[in-house]
Amino acid sequence: MEAAAVEAVIHGLKRAGVDFISLLPDSDFSALQHQVANDRHFTYVPVSSEAIGVGVCAGAYLSGKRPALLVPTSGLLVAAWPLTSICMAWSLPLLLLIPYRGDIGDAFWLMGPYKDTTEPLLKVLNAPYTVISKQENISQAIIDAQASTISWQRPVAVLLTGETIK
Amino acid sequence: MKRFDCLKLLASMINAKTIVVANVGPISREWNALRPSDANLLQVNLGLCAAVGLGISVSLPQRQVVILDGDGNLLLNLASLADMANQDLKNTVHIVLDNEAYEGGGGLRSATGGKADLSVIARGAGVPQTCVVTTLEEFATEARQSLNQSGHRFIVAKVAKGSVANLPTITLDGKEAKYRFARYIESTEGVEILRPRYTHI
Which residue of A has its CA nearest to B88? Predict the structure, then answer.
């Protein structure tokens, strides 16, 4: 992920009022994750499973924080159950930032299955999403997604693809 | 040792403002009967009790948080223990009512009914203070100490299977529980959580 894209994400998160980040370390977001971890604006809670991350963010939201979960593409599958049993069942918001591996143009065969699962899974989870491929659109997409997740009280995802995760 | 007796003791010691996060199933029903309060967040699903408690503990470091976990609930996401330990919590009492079984799921034994020892696992995960109690007297001592000190304490209470008769039904679903808990936090912490029209941006 290029420095400009990282800056755009950080800018969007701050403008959106996000003050709490949970994540599981991931190669696609590693530059972003290092920056978030060292930015005192954010309460930072790294987790060992994306499922735990969903629970942590639920607790944070109910305590007055504005959380976001940085989820590796594969981790969305791990998070699916708590997204159902907490976010869907309790009607809780959650901003999800996901690097969209396996999107068209991703040449690594191992990522192929995520094209088949990512968007259908978000639809099944009743989590609206937007796919962002240009750096100049990152910040506003995050701001809009945060406004939507708080207003709608259900998870909303921003999928970053193309040049945004190069 | 009966779980209900442990919870009854705990309810007699606990501060009105202490936040309690509890496992779905009999633990929530018993706790709701003993200490009905909007400071409770009950019926947290399998694998998530510790995680939700962690999110609250980190976000509200000035509030005491008690997590009433089940052995099955915790076993599903054991890594929660490591993630909690790494936050150096100062305000958290994590109690596992360990009946060595999936009582709400038909009663088959859990891994703690075999060879697993949650207190050893928690210690290995980095939780600073852990213990196992098998009598009400031990439970009372550990619970009182934990509630009266800052830190992150982990208590495994070995309890028998079975609940008590005629417990009131919990009439809140997750959505109503969310609103009540969030409104309670808003009023006691002076924060804004629920904001149907989020337009400041």
Answer: A45
